[in-house]
Predict the 3D structure of the following.
Amino acid sequence: MNLSFRAGALSLAVSAALFATPVLADGSKLDEVIARGHLILGTGSTNAPWHFKSAEDKLQGFDVDMGRIIAKALFGDPDKIEYVNQSSDARIPNITTDKVDITCQFMTVTGERAQQIAFTIPYYREGVGLMLKGDGQYADYAALKAAGSSVTISVLQNVYAEAMVHAALPEATVDQYESVDLIYQALESGRADAVATDQSSLAWYMTQNPGRYKDAGYGWNPQTYACGVKRGDQDWLNFVNTALHEAMTGVEFDFYATSYKTWFGKELTPPQIGFPVEYK
């Protein structure tokens, strides 16, 4: 065969390959979920106010509502969800093996986890807080700190408990207990002057016991909660981010704010109209 003819044929073949419309082997998770007709959400069922069962055995909580926001954005119906009840150590494996479309389960964003899954934009910022009795001896965090070693703080038992409390109250006595119920009982009985635990837990407990307790007004040890999806699917990640973003700043704000008030007992200020707050 003439060499110049072969070269010309090869050139035409390469040009055709470059300009042909690409055919993807797999579509986005977004297309898969829409075609299926419901979202598969991985979450827990035992940690109020994040994910827990109601008296009617219905799954509820702030994490659950994040899934409902995404389902509403997908189908116009927040209840088009199939729930996968999973333990904390199944959160990432269930994403990477496609057992779930997304996990929303008070999952802290870390660099190590971000190597395994893709995180959405944050939907909550957690931290440690201090809860006082409404009619107790100390008015707020400043009073606790000023009292020095006279103050006793109850906290859930773990290897970091003492260091965690002392980061906020360096001189306080730290009493560790084996269960969450016991740390609240210590406050109620007067064995402790304040409880140190997740601020979301304090907000939920105060919501369930209105007027009985108060927040000391100081938080520390921040950590970010976000949902997780499988890596490598930018269309799906972009869609979920859009749904969450518009719930916190746009057309679905009332849905997010109602959930926030229900589980944390606080009214959110509506997003400011005009120049987008994200760029201020």
